[in-house]
Amino acid sequence: MPIYEYECTKCGKVFEALVPMGAKDAPPCPTCSSRRVKKKISMIATGKGGCTSCASSSCSSKGFS
Ligand SMILES: [Zn+2]
Question: What is the DSSP letter of 28?
Fold first, then answer.
């Protein structure tokens, strides 16, 4: 599952959430429970090669696929 970063437009809280493929609804804010959140681009799930556990660009063990 991809990890997305969300920002709550009500209280400004930024949080990350695992979102199942095909999910249409954004997760509610963990702080104020508002659903008025906007998705940000996560730095974690960019999938730009390399290993997510050792951070080496030459490592072939990809964390996400
Ligand atoms: Zn909030």
Answer: P
The more confidently predicted of residues 6 and 23 is: 6
State the pLDDT at residue 21: 81
CA distance 11 to 55: 33
Strands, DSSP E only, in 10-60?
14-18, 37-40
Count of CB atoms within 10 A of residue 48's CB? 6
Mean of per-residue pLDDT scores for the chain:
78
Residues whose Cβ atom is located within 5 A of ion ligand 1? 8, 10-11, 13, 29, 31-32, 34
Q: Give residue 15 CA to ligand 1 midpoint distance, Å.
A: 9
